[in-house]
Amino acid sequence: MTSYLVAPADRVAGELAVPGDKSISHRAVMFGALAEGRTHVSGFLEGEDCLATMRAVGNLGVSVQRPAAGEVIVEGVGLRGLRAPDVTLDMGNAGTAMRLSMGLLCAQPFDSTLIGDESLMRRPMERAAKPLRAMGAQIETLEGRPPVRIKGGAQLRGIRYEMPVASAQVKSAILLAGLYAEGETTVIEPAVTRDHTERMLQSFGCQVRARDGVVSLLAPKSLRATRIRVPGDISSAAFFLVAACLGARAPFTIREVGVNPTRTGILEMLALMGADLRLVNHRSYGMEPVADIEVRPAQLHGARIPERLVPLAIDEFPALFVAAACAEGETLVTGAAELRVKESDRIAAMARGLGVLGVAHDVLTDGLRIRGGQRFSGGTIDSRGDHRIAMAFAVASLWATGPIEILDTANVATSFPGFAELANSVGLQIEVRG
Ligand code: S3P
Q1: Which of 106, 114, 306, 397 has the smallest number of Cβ neighbours within 10 A?
Q2: For range 157-177, the mean pLDDT
Q3: How high does pLDDT run on average in the chain?
Q4: Which atom of ligand 1 is nearest to the CA of 22?
């Protein structure tokens, strides 16, 4: 089992760029597969999650090439050109790959079965299966979890679906099925979630109407291949935003970060805690806004995190909880029960780790209350195979007085290959073992 041994560090300095956005990379390959013609993707995240999507698309008869690092060429087969897979589709650790594929595959003329690793096999799939069934899909889960068995040949019809949980994966699964449905497909979100599907479908020539949390589309005749440039992943940048808040003595810059407003909750949350963050050099990669983020030294203090920010930063809470552990005073996060059904139960995993370090906290059903500001000890923390838990506690080394050992770190490669090397290049001291 691989682990990190992280020595206490007292500063970070320099600048860096993080790997490509995971959500956008998944979608680029999937939508490219359904388009007519050749889609070029640059800045693609070569993490295990997106590679799982790429393999799945390959198993559906689509040629996908990787001519150079971060470059992907997808030879689209058109909306009706996918072939029956002759294997069970293994989505690894990737919830996005599985849930989006459910939407896509329930509209195909062939059967398919989706599985994943130990973590993914425990995650809830009915949230996507249920609305897809309402569209006419034939999908079975095993007591709500994978394997997901999909029977082909269903005739889908559009629905108007009010999502009970704010989930971009569920929204996207429904919209993907909507590409094949008769009549209009509409999803109503209880809170704004990331809108990469809506934006990227437009880049592929499909009209999507999105206003005030109501997203609709009509099945297009075809999707048109395009070029996608993937910005850096703000969810990966989050670890360095927090690291810089804790350890920068001079402005620290993270270049080329996707700053789609449905993803920037972490910037608002850190600003509420006193961070000095500035977005500079604004530009767009296709439909996605991009900027460089400058972090200047500032003393963090605790804050009450507004619940409206939770879906806009859903993957950033492990990093945010570490910031809260170092911030003076109390931070309160509520309305974040979704954290319990991520790659691990992130409320439980973070609470356990903070406990090991001696950080005072209370566990809530839907969040955490953290009393921070005191330097903490080192200790041994189980990441539970969750990439973001592992990276968050590596950043905690900037506030620790002793080494932090982090167990089960191999899954960092799902979203952030090269994390330890990049972190060490700006001042962290992570020894990768095993
Ligand atoms: C994602 C949506 C979010 C997020 C995940 C990626 C996406 O999941 O946590 O990492 O790409 O649509 P939910 O839809 O379950 O909130």
Answers
A1: 306
A2: 98
A3: 98
A4: 11
